[in-house]
């Protein structure tokens, strides 16, 4: 660290930007910086966090223009000339300061049929899942998503088309499509092949580049593109 | 957040996307003009010869180099996109395929250089 204080610029929506001088510490995270501002400089600053260890997905913000989990981002990794700029996640309506309304994000999760489509009851025997089958390997690749919306904020296609379901919801759809326990194949393919569906994706890859869990939504969406195309040529089968 | 907006796009996949998009736009603007000039061979050969004389100018030669570059970039961009989306390959398989393509391109270029 070059200086003892950090110059922290925080975007506050309609109120413009505020610049705070924050003491620099070793192993300081961006979330530590935001918390310091709220506790010592401006108690009216609103932001969202819960677990502080990268499990809950609630503290994502734009840090120097890149969507990140602030709790898992060390200041030393992003600081430029002793300065950091922090803003609310892109592509979502701002409630106040650094807090965004996540409703559109979760609505699209449901819109992409990202819900369980079960066929069995509690009286049926537990279905055996072959962990080594190719479909299960595909499904396993996406199940660690914690809905933090970093990929959604990184996506330029979402920015250009508000109806686009976005990387997280489509990856969930791909996961369920490959899940042997899910019976919603036709509903999923129908949901992801519509006007806001997987074929909007231009494979810009920002979702895959910035996913803090190192998941690969771009490849999941490519999988949906293949499956919807196959389904089209087989006339819905 | 103008400069910050650029930061989040500074990665190879996005740059490959924008290169493909811009080269495509460039070709879309050029091709109607190109076909119109070719059509002059049938409708007005004298005028076509006038246009062909332009190709002797250095600046036009440079523009032609740019055109071939756009075509090459757009073709490889399209092949990349089709491989990316239609072939369910693992990342290492894709890296191998890209490496093999680059190597064969390099060898082909070496042969071409020797021929020239």
Describe this entry's structure for a reader.
The complex is a heterodimer of chains A (237) and B (116). With 237 residues, chain A is α+β, with helices and mostly antiparallel strands. Chain A has 2 domains: 5-100, Ubiquitin-like (UB roll) (Roll), CATH 3.10.20; 103-233, Alpha-helical ferredoxin (Fumarate Reductase Iron-sulfur Protein, Chain B, domain 2). Chain A is 36% helix and 14% strand. Chain A is built from 10 helices and 7 strands. In chain A, strand 3 (60-63) and strand 4 (66-69) form a beta hairpin. In chain A, helix 4 packs antiparallel against helix 7 (167-177), helix 7 packs antiparallel against helix 8 (185-192) and helix 7 (167-177) packs across helix 10 (217-233). Chain A is elongated and about 60 Å long. Chain B is elongated. Chain B has one domain (2-88). Chain B is an all-alpha fold. Chain B has helices at 2-7, 12-43, 45-54, 58-86, 91-115. Chain B contains 5 helices and no strands. The longest helix of chain B has 32 residues, at 12-43. In chain B, helix 2 crosses helix 4. The interface between A and B is medium-sized, with 23 and 19 residues.
């Amino acid at each position: 660290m070059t200086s003892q204080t950090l110059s922290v610029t925080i975007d506050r929506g309609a109120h413009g930007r505020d610049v705070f001088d924050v003491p620099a510490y070793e192993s300081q995270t961006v979330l530590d910086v935001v918390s310091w501002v709220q506790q010592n400089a401006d108690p009216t600053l609103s932001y969202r966090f819960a677990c502080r260890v990268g499990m809950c997905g609630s503290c994502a913000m734009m840090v120097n223009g890149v969507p990140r989990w602030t709790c898992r981002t060390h200041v030393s990794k992003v600081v430029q000339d002793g300065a950091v700029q922090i803003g609310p996640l892109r592509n979502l309506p701002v409630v106040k300061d650094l807090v965004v309304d996540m409703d559109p994000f979760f609505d699209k999760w449901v819109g992409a049929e990202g819900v369980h489509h079960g066929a069995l009851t509690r009286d049926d025997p537990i279905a055996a899942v072959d962990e080594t089958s190719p479909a299960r390997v595909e499904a396993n690749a996406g199940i660690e998503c914690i809905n933090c919306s970093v990929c959604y904020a990184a996506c330029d296609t979402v920015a250009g088309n508000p109806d686009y379901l976005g990387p997280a919801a489509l990856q969930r759809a791909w996961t369920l499509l490959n899940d042997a326990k899910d019976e919603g194949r036709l509903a999923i393919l129908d949901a992801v092949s519509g006007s806001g569906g997987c074929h909007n994706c231009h494979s810009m890859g920002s979702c895959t580049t910035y996913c803090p869990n190192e998941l690969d939504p771009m490849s999941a969406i490519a999988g949906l593109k293949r499956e919807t195309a196959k389904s089209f040529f087989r006339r819905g089968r | 957040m103008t400069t910050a907006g650029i930061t989040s796009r500074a990665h190879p996949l996005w740059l490959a996307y924008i290169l493909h998009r811009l080269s495509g736009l460039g070709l879309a603007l050029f091709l109607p003009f190109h076909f119109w000039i070719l059509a002059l061979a049938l409708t007005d050969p004298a005028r076509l010869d006038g246009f062909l004389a332009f190709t002797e100018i250095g600046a036009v030669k440079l523009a032609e180099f740019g055109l071939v570059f756009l075509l090459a970039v757009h073709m490889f961009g399209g092949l990349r996109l089709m491989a990316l989306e239609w072939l369910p390959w693992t990342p290492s398989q894709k890296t191998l395929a890209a490496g093999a393509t680059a190597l064969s391109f390099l060898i082909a270029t070496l042969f071409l250089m020797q021929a020239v």
